[in-house]
């Protein structure tokens, strides 16, 4: 699952995304269709013509409201959480990903690692440590609001920086994780007026403090972040 929400300033691209531009999600959708997986793309501004043209047996486009106060990077988790809640009987396992810079390279759901670790949270990572200048800036707002945030940063300062562009596992685990993530955003991130969305800060905080004992990140889940390893097929996802 992924979200493409437009109509507000996109902090990652420093612009407002065009409302009906499918090109940003095309590679993500085609990689899923090529593997004959099921992809759900939530959007708020694709036209009926665009949806009719691009929906197929593998890609479903679902229109959602985008009311605020959250930015798109954060609001997507509320969308995913509600969808999983409504379709619990139909979904046994799931990944949620970024959409403009992630493609699926191989089917994760048939990989032995995935199937032999049913209680594991799988996610992407970066070739950095948590104690990274960008990450420290990104977490400024949450650090000021969450009492043990600084202690977590100290404890895991040398740990690998996790990336929320790829998150997956079985339905029960993902429902539990997304509910906890949404609770953090609802309690601490609604009034975030900083230049950073808080999605990476909340994600790393939650995983390291509550899910670290059931965590798997890195290959074969993801290629090297920003490695542009376009020829690799030994990993499940390529994130840039």
Key features of this structure:
single chain; 240 residues; alpha/beta; 4-stranded mixed β-sheet; 3-stranded parallel β-sheet; 9 helices; globular
Q: How much helix is in the residues?
A: 25-40%
What spatial form do the alpha-carbon principal axes imply?
Answer: globular
Give unreliable regions as ranges: none
Instruction: Walk across the major sheet and give the strand order.
Output: 6-9-8-10
Question: Can you summarize this structure?
Answer:
By secondary structure, the protein is α/β, with parallel strands linked by helices.
Question: What can you see in these coordinates?
Answer:
The chain is of the alpha/beta class and 240 residues long. It is 36% helix and 21% strand. It contains nine helices and eleven strands. It has a four-stranded mixed beta sheet with strand order 6-9-8-10. A three-stranded parallel beta sheet has the order 1-4-5. Helix 2 (48-54) links the parallel strand 4 and strand 5 (59-63). Helix 3 (72-86) packs across helix 8 (171-188) and helix 8 (171-188) packs across helix 9 (199-210). The longest helix is centred in the C-terminal third of the chain and has 18 residues, at 171-188. The two termini are 18 Å apart.
């Amino acid at each position: 699952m992924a979200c493409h929400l437009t109509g507000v300033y996109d902090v990652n691209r420093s612009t407002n995304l065009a409302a009906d531009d499918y090109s940003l999600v095309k590679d993500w959708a085609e990689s899923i269709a090529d593997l004959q997986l099921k992809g759900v793309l939530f959007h708020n501004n694709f036209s009926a013509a665009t949806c009719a043209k691009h929906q197929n047996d593998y890609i479903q486009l679902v229109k959602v409201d985008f009311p605020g106060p959250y930015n798109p990077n954060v609001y997507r988790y509320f969308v995913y959480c509600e969808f999983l809640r409504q379709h619990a009987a139909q979904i046994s396992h799931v990944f949620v990903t970024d959409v403009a810079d992630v493609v699926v390279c191989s089917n994760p759901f048939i990989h032995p690692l995935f199937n032999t670790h049913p209680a594991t949270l799988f996610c992407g990572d970066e070739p950095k440590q948590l104690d990274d200048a960008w990450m420290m800036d990104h977490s400024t707002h949450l650090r000021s609001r969450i009492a043990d945030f600084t202690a977590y940063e100290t404890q895991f300062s040398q740990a690998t920086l996790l990336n929320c562009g790829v998150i997956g596992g079985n339905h029960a685990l993902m429902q539990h994780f997304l509910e906890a993530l949404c609770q953090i955003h609802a309690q601490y991130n609604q009034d975030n007026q900083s230049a950073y969305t808080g999605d990476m800060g909340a994600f790393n905080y939650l995983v390291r403090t509550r899910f670290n004992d059931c965590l798997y990140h890195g290959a074969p889940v993801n290629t090297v972040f920003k490695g542009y390893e376009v020829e690799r097929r030994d990993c499940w996802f390529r994130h840039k």
